[in-house]
Amino acid sequence: MTRLTRILRTTAFKLLLLYTAVFSGLSGFLLIYISRNTTDLMSSQIVQTVDAEIAGLSDEYLRGGVRGLVSSIERRARRPDASLYLLVDFAGNSIVGNISRLPTIVLDEADGDVRRMKYDRLESGGEVQREALVRIFELRGGFRLLVGRDLGEQLRFSAILSGALRFWLTAVVVMAGATWLFVSRRVMKRIDGIAATSQTIMHGDLSRRLPVAGNGDEFDRLATNLNDMLERIELLMQGMKNVTDNIAHDLKTPLTRMRTRVETALRASSGNTAIEYCEALEATIEDSDNLIRIFDALLRIARVEAMSPEAGMEPFDLKAVIEEMADLYGPLVEDEGGRLTFEVEGPAEVIGSRDLIAQVIVNLIENALKYGRPEEGAPVISIRAALKNERIVLSVRDNGPGIAGDDVERVTGRFVRLDASRSAPGYGLGLSLVQAIARLHGGTLRLQDAAPGLGVDIDLLPSGQKAVETG
Amino acid sequence: MARECSSKVCPPFWLELVEASDGGFGNGSAVGVSLSFGIHFPYKEVMLRILIIEDDVEASAYLAKGLKELGHVADQAGDGEVGLEMALASAYDVLIVDRMLPKRDGLSVIEELRKAENQTAVLILSALGQVDDRVTGLKAGGDDYLPKPYAFTELLARVEALARRPKVGGDIETSYQIGDLSLDRLAHSCRRGETDIPLQPREFRLLEYLMQHAGQVVTRTMLLENVWEYHFDPQTNVIDVHISRLRGKIDKDFDKPLLHTIRGAGYSIRDTTD
């Protein structure tokens, strides 16, 4: 696209074109309207003057006959104004008047109507062709009298008006052009700046931001919004990159191990017994089971995130679920040398998916077992449910090292494993799932330092009125 | 899945298989690279007639081959219409029905079957695997539900459990007996030989379920679903802990273990001298 076509296609240009057309149309209309009305007014005044003159002259004629009329016309014709007089006899010979020549046919139609005509007038410099409005009467004795008024004044006025109109239109067009040049240069500069930056961003440099001039105009607002969007996109991209890196890492390790194992089993084919083959195969299956488990966990998070909040949500007794989970996990915690306690205050009927909430409790207990062990002493995990601000808060606490403030934000991300727990088994998906489930239930997941240990709180909606009454 | 099985307590079943097959894996014997992942399920003599309704030809063939190797009869149907016809035409022990099928979807196949008063046990396979999918599947008349991808052992355990479930309307046994271990459901008591064994309610439920499926393999997921009635995915060996506690009560002080760990699959309660 050339620069010209680009300019021609800008909105500024189109708007300018439109406004110029509308504006000049309107002002043209106004001027024409004024001139039309003024001319009409002037014409009617002329007609009135002519009529008055005719009335006067008729009186002269009645009183003094032709002689009186002639002297009166002579007198009047000498006055230096726009009035025209001509008296001719029956043969058309001029008797008296200030018109030197006029088309002869004009005098033939002596019907007394107002009419427009061209004539030659005697002036100091000689004969001049002029235009006039005239009335012609036939008098007794074949005399014909023409009384009229010169239109020079009116024509000059029209000329002034049309001159003004032309000047006006030229001025409008010139001003419009100038404005457009100014606007388009300024706007184009800003837009070209934005376009250039977005080109760079599109080519992969997500860290670039659009220029903000700082004067708070609409381009600044747009640029600020776009910059915020870019910020979010960059964050998401970063997150996705991390997830991809982690998936790649977490999947590559077992895949490589699997491959090596199979290769080793194959290479030592002669010396292998069936049992060794089977062991290699079983280990391979276990590795692939692990891979499937990672994918399952990712899929489950994606599904929970995609679920509509209504699907599969029913009121259920959170207390029973906590009891059953404590019953299920109690022996495991005891075997690990720890203690699992639970406490439910008041009714704990909540709305949600029983299995998903059970999964939340399980993930939190398993996390506490894996990462929440104190350096010395027995791990103590406590589950609690209590009504608070019309929400039922489910919390799981441990007495382990807790999570440092900086990491609290990070730890719910997919595949995020804090350095301290890298060596422990797991994929870093547990809390992501817990967060997704909490969100599905319209609640939030809060991690806090329980001094000592980590506290995880989740808000759940109590079901029906029962819970609200007690609250 | 953690393996708490030591080869002394329960020799891996593929060992039996290898010994029986009298040869290595390299000579193309019937054992080959076993589709049952080296796991030989006990009570092989119970032959089941199974219909697989699944449009994925490869998955279906793989499943059928695996089941046939274990001595079952496995027929295949590629779409819902054919599947429904076959299921109505002959008596099967278990139907394995994929949810998404051409011509007629899995759920509607099951609904039609139930309308026709056909009570054949149905295991639903689904790639969807959401919580409410399970519910809709079971509401439509399915008896069990397994999300894809599944382990063959898990599927096999569930198929065998379905095939041997008590018939609808039939009498439910009030007591179970395995070797010298007995469980009385009415008296809520458990005895081994002359010894009374006190059991916690949950342990009782666990043993009851295992004994209901005596001789079969019961997977950890099946236990979680049927004894605790939860459908979620534990990352730890939480079921194993309960099993080992139960084992401590019913097996520890006796000569012969009855509760066996099946490597890579789950658990099985049985009397090996049968």
UniProtKB/TrEMBL annotation, chain A:
<dbReference type="InterPro" id="IPR050428">
    <property type="entry name" value="TCS_sensor_his_kinase"/>
</dbReference>
<dbReference type="InterPro" id="IPR005467">
    <property type="entry name" value="His_kinase_dom"/>
</dbReference>
<dbReference type="InterPro" id="IPR003661">
    <property type="entry name" value="HisK_dim/P_dom"/>
</dbReference>
<feature type="transmembrane region" description="Helical">
    <location>
        <begin position="12"/>
        <end position="34"/>
    </location>
</feature>
<dbReference type="InterPro" id="IPR004358">
    <property type="entry name" value="Sig_transdc_His_kin-like_C"/>
</dbReference>
<keyword id="KW-0472">Membrane</keyword>
<dbReference type="InterPro" id="IPR003594">
    <property type="entry name" value="HATPase_dom"/>
</dbReference>
<dbReference type="Pfam" id="PF02518">
    <property type="entry name" value="HATPase_c"/>
</dbReference>
<feature type="transmembrane region" description="Helical">
    <location>
        <begin position="165"/>
        <end position="183"/>
    </location>
</feature>
<keyword id="KW-0597">Phosphoprotein</keyword>
<dbReference type="InterPro" id="IPR036890">
    <property type="entry name" value="HATPase_C_sf"/>
</dbReference>
<feature type="domain" description="HAMP">
    <location>
        <begin position="185"/>
        <end position="238"/>
    </location>
</feature>
<dbReference type="GO" id="GO:0016301">
    <property type="term" value="F:kinase activity"/>
</dbReference>
<dbReference type="Pfam" id="PF00672">
    <property type="entry name" value="HAMP"/>
</dbReference>
<keyword id="KW-0902">Two-component regulatory system</keyword>
<dbReference type="InterPro" id="IPR036097">
    <property type="entry name" value="HisK_dim/P_sf"/>
</dbReference>
<dbReference type="Pfam" id="PF00512">
    <property type="entry name" value="HisKA"/>
</dbReference>
<dbReference type="InterPro" id="IPR003660">
    <property type="entry name" value="HAMP_dom"/>
</dbReference>
<protein>
    <recommendedName>
        <fullName>histidine kinase</fullName>
        <ecNumber>2.7.13.3</ecNumber>
    </recommendedName>
</protein>
<keyword id="KW-0808">Transferase</keyword>
<keyword id="KW-0418">Kinase</keyword>
<feature type="domain" description="Histidine kinase">
    <location>
        <begin position="246"/>
        <end position="464"/>
    </location>
</feature>
<keyword id="KW-1133">Transmembrane helix</keyword>
<keyword id="KW-0812">Transmembrane</keyword>
